[in-house]
Amino acid sequence: MGIDFLDLTFRIEKLLGVTLDNDDWFESAKGRARGDMTAGELHFLVGVKLREAELPVPWSCWTRVRVAVAETAGVPIHEVKRDSWLCEDLGLT
Description:
Elements: H1 3-16, H2 22-28, H3 39-52, H4 61-73
Helix pairs in contact: 1-4, 3-4
């Protein structure tokens, strides 16, 4: 996991109160080049982790994930779409 993913993990924890560990990232991106996943897959993963922790999934969950990804990648929020690849499209390392 690169520094961007560590930064993204901390931002998601701060914005949504859920913790993602290395296993979550690697399992979700299993079998993909460079372990990449889409922003939509990340949003789904965050929802799963919230439900596992018996926390509500806020209506603003997608927006919060987009904000975290955009700030980490240094891109405008409108560039973060559900089908945007975190590494390939948005440049996370």
